[in-house]
Amino acid sequence: MTLRSTFHNENSAEGRVYLPTTGNLEPARIEWDTTGRIERIIRLDTRANDLSIILPGFIDEHVHGAQGHDVMEATIESWEAISYGLAKHGVTGFLATTISALASELQEVMECARNYPRHPQSNWLGLHWEGPYIDPAFKGAQPAEAVRPVDLREIETLLSGRTDDMVPVRLMTLAPNLPLSGKLTQWLTARGIHVNLGHTGAGQEETMAAVKNGADGITHLFNGMVGLHHRQPGIVGTALTEDSLWLELITDGIHIHPEVVRLVFHAAASRVILVTDGISATDCLPGQHKLGKWFVNVDENSARLEDGTLAGSVLTPDQSVRNLLRWGIPMRQIVHSWCEAPALRFGLTGLGRIERGYFADLVELDSEYRVLRTFKRGQTIASP
Ligand SMILES: [Zn+2]
Predict the structure, then answer these.
(1) What is the edge-to-edge ordering of all strands in the sheet holding 287-291?
(2) What is the pLDDT of residue 48?
């Protein structure tokens, strides 16, 4: 019996390619070497309008699941299903995102991360811990029984010695208005773990204090926090004007009104990091689905708890691109926020751009921006 490679061997792709130099789609052929690094981009003289569109692959720093599976299942099989489910939507990099859970459950996630197979064509980039140290008053769909005060000893036990390449925890979401959150922020950032502020009732002063302690991002801006008020800028107003903060946005048209999405791009386009906050129900039929071990009700466009609270989303990055183009956001800003911004934030060398020397992490789309094929380091990892 001969083993067939899962990946097709290719060394070029042709289409209307998003080029960072022009910020536009241009007919071109991308060629890469055997390691998947882009060697050449050759502009094509063609008027052909049947060419597919090629963008850099999407990087999602906040996603809980896909294809009926949740990161909290903490098994290799479930994570591989999620990885493939995301690849079908053009994702060439993602952070497996947890929700607030017992220490033993988070330990299982760490264990899974330690054993998760590494290979060049994997789109798994590490972990994003969303909670458990968040503000109970702004917990959203996070389970109340697992939300708790900052526990420095617990986090040390869970993470200590395990923040190297073997278990890359790259990001943690915490509430900066909790006691000891400043210490926790310093402890994490000293170990190279980025800190997002979220699920919090924090105001301007607490937000700025967290920035001084090293926090550099906001989890799903506007959702799970106090809104913007002209006499009380709060965390949102501070986030919009504080240049050191990356801003996660969920662009399903439900979490944030399209007009407010446009406002954020007007104010801070270079700092937007687009995310899905997608859950297991993505690409599944409407009905009851899981977030962690809790059930949520899912319809065509949203996922909610019994009381109507939004519980993550069923958004995909390609749907986000379609929405943003319809709302008038320029292509340059969309590609920056889905691809280059997260790569810059996490220091992911060689990711996020279609340029010589970068990896051929690409998504090929039809003229309606539906995914045809996803490449990781030059090899096809999904062709839905
Ligand atoms: Zn989330």
Answers:
(1) 287-291, 294-298, 302-304, 310-313
(2) 76
CA of 9 to the centre of ligand 1 (A): 36
Q: Residue range 25-36: average pLDDT?
A: 96
Residue 49 confidence (pLDDT)? 74
Active site (catalytic) residues: 277
Q: Model-level pTM?
A: 0.95
Q: Which two tokens stand for residue 258?
A: 């399209």
Rounded alpha-carbon distances, angstroms, from residue 79 to 17, 94, 188: 30, 11, 25
d(CA 160, ligand 1 centre) in Å: 24
CATH 3.20.20.140 fits 58-345, yes or no: yes
What does CATH list as the number for 12-54+357-382? 2.30.40.10
* Residues ≥6 apart with Cβ < 8 Å to 4: none
Confidence category of residue 1, pLDDT binned at 50, 70, 90: very low
In residues, how long is the chain? 384
Q: What is the pLDDT of residues 227-250, one digit of tens each?
A: 999 999 999 999 999 999 999 999
Q: Which of 331, 228, 253, 244 is nearest to 261 (CA)?
A: 253
Ligand 1 centroid to residue 224 C-alpha, Å: 10
Give the distance (Å) from ligand 1 centre to CA of residue 380: 28
Domain ranges of the chain: 12-54+357-382, 58-345
